[in-house]
Amino acid sequence: MNTKVSPTEASHLNIQPKILYYGMPVILATTLNENGTTNISPLSSSWALGRYLVLGMGFGGQGIDNLQRTPELVVNVPDAAMWQQVEMLGSLTGKHPVPDYKVQMGYRYEPDKFTAAGLTPAASLSVKPQRIAECPLQIECAVKKITFPDYAPMFAIVETEAVQIHALPDIVKKTGSDHIDPSRWNPLIYNFRHYFGLGDRLGHNYRAEI
């Protein structure tokens, strides 16, 4: 007698996790401080469609304050090998004084996040915030719209357009190509507050560059 349960009949648990970071690339958003220096904000909520990127940023942080004043940024995408440097940034804030809720979460003020995380600033071509030299992929962006949703006032939705894209030669398919080689690109994935890289390739979409 076949007692195997099909996937459509399998039981699922009804759960209420505190967070829903179900596996997304980490990005380091660099924005311009009021004094002309560059702030770094680690983010785990973003998606792209064509040349448009949508970011989720916490309300009350230095990053969103900077974007409201100077609506441009760089989306720096670290690879998996950079997870420790990303984690060094996790408890730092460029906001001074540190908001009470962030103090309770263990944050401390750090005006120079590049030095604190062992990262190197690099000049951008079209925006004022600096890029992060160690990140293999860097996307200079202009902010198109910032929304503070009524249903969730603790974060902002930032809509942007890519104006310059920089990639290390190691992750580009071949000299003169505009295509990233997915076999060489291993983005850092934030998976329920744990860091992962990519596993082996399983296949490719019919529109993929071979």
Automatic annotation (TrEMBL):
<dbReference type="InterPro" id="IPR052174">
    <property type="entry name" value="Flavoredoxin"/>
</dbReference>
<dbReference type="GO" id="GO:0016646">
    <property type="term" value="F:oxidoreductase activity, acting on the CH-NH group of donors, NAD or NADP as acceptor"/>
</dbReference>
<dbReference type="InterPro" id="IPR002563">
    <property type="entry name" value="Flavin_Rdtase-like_dom"/>
</dbReference>
<comment type="similarity">
    <text>Belongs to the flavoredoxin family.</text>
</comment>
<protein>
    <recommendedName>
        <fullName>Flavin reductase like domain-containing protein</fullName>
    </recommendedName>
</protein>
<dbReference type="Pfam" id="PF01613">
    <property type="entry name" value="Flavin_Reduct"/>
</dbReference>
<feature type="domain" description="Flavin reductase like">
    <location>
        <begin position="23"/>
        <end position="198"/>
    </location>
</feature>
<dbReference type="InterPro" id="IPR012349">
    <property type="entry name" value="Split_barrel_FMN-bd"/>
</dbReference>
<keyword id="KW-0285">Flavoprotein</keyword>
<dbReference type="GO" id="GO:0010181">
    <property type="term" value="F:FMN binding"/>
</dbReference>
